[in-house]
User: Which sequence fits this backbone?
């Protein structure tokens, strides 16, 4: 049985809105580590949020399962989702109802308030996972005496990762969560996650735009464009010869770069056929805002 299985998934964020995901199907084996590659807006985050049970699907025929269980009706234990917002993780933990309510507020007082990191981790059950928590504290170079309101975004992100990873997972869904980390901490974290996956058979799906240092991490890579898979999750080898034979490029970075260039060319061809174009607008008639602000521009 595949650890993650999706069949005929189409999803729209609202009635009358164009689908963000179109006829998605995938099957990932236990212990796999899949990198999702695609431009901004390709649907990577939406797919991960659906796998995490955070968005309800209503389309007929869609089936989304993790560990053989429907993610909306019998959500399986052992699934961790980590995204750029703190409440992404907190809301997935039913034991943290009061913390969830606070962290969902706009100003997010829990993670930006004057609370010491050691107390914060204890408040979310860190004492229950002491051995793994302490290893992550060392890997992520976290000071237990930091005050949450007085540290940088990167340091706060490290605390989030300790919180999210200190309980062992069976399936880990990562959405751009390493974006604030310096290169050394990120490298140490990826080594830990790879070792964790190999030793326990844990499955990881990771959406990122940072490909440096990832060449040896994935077992599979996949390419998403405009809500669909261009390339289904395909086995990846860090061997240059194998990578060239399979994907036409030597490294994961080169593969991602080529795929993203293809995405841009594809979109621009659609724009020539009538799709709304991006970039500068060359209008003969100035916009209302341009006309207004020119009238009161005293810079010259």
Assistant:
């Amino acid at each position: 049985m595949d650890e993650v299985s999706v069949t005929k998934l189409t999803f729209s964020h609202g009635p009358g809105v164009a689908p963000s995901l179109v006829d998605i199907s995938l099957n990932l084996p236990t212990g796999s580590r899949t990198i999702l590659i695609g431009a901004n807006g390709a649907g990577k985050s939406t797919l991960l949020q659906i796998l995490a049970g955070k968005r309800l699907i209503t389309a007929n025929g869609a089936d989304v399962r993790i560990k053989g269980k429907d993610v909306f009706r019998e959500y399986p234990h052992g699934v961790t989702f980590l995204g750029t917002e703190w409440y992404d993780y907190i809301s997935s933990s039913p034991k943290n109802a009061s913390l969830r309510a606070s962290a969902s507020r706009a100003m997010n007082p829990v993670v930006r308030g004057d609370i010491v990191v050691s107390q914060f981790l204890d408040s979310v059950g860190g004492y229950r996972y002491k051995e793994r928590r302490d290893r992550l504290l060392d890997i992520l170079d976290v000071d237990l005496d930091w005050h949450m309101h007085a540290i940088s975004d990167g340091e706060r992100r490290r605390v989030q990762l300790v919180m999210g990873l200190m309980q062992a997972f069976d399936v880990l869904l990562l959405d751009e969560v390493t974006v604030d980390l310096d290169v050394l901490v990120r490298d140490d974290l990826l080594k830990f996650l790879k070792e964790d996956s190999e030793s326990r058979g844990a499955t990881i799906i990771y959406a990122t735009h940072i490909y440096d240092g990832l060449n040896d991490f994935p077992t599979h890579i996949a390419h998403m464009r405009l809500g669909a898979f261009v390339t289904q999750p395909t086995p990846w080898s860090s061997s240059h010869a194998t990578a060239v034979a399979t994907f036409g490029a030597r490294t994961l970075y080169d593969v991602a770069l080529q795929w993203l260039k293809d995405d841009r060319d594809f979109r621009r061809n659609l724009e020539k056929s009538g799709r709304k174009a991006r970039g500068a607008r060359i209008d003969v008639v100035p916009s209302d805002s341009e006309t207004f602000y020119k009238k009161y521009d005293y810079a010259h």
Q: What stands out?
A: The beta strands are 4-11, 21-28, 33-37, 63-66, 69-70, 79-82, 171-175, 203-207, 220-225, 228-235. Residues 252-272 form the longest helix (21 residues). The domain at 4-78+168-295 is CATH 3.40.50.300 (Rossmann fold). The chain has eleven helices and ten strands.
